[in-house]
Amino acid sequence: MASPLPLSQLGGGQRRLFELGSARASDELELDKESWRRLGPKHATAVLSSLAKKQLPEVATRVVGFMLENRLEVNVYHYNALISACEKSKKWQQALQVLWGMPGLSVTPDGISYNAAISACEKGGKWELALSILKYISDARLVPDRIGLNAAISACEKGGQWQIACALLNEMSVASGHEPDQISYNAVIGACQKG
Question: Has the keyword Transmembrane been applied to this entry (predicted)?
Answer without folding.
Answer: no
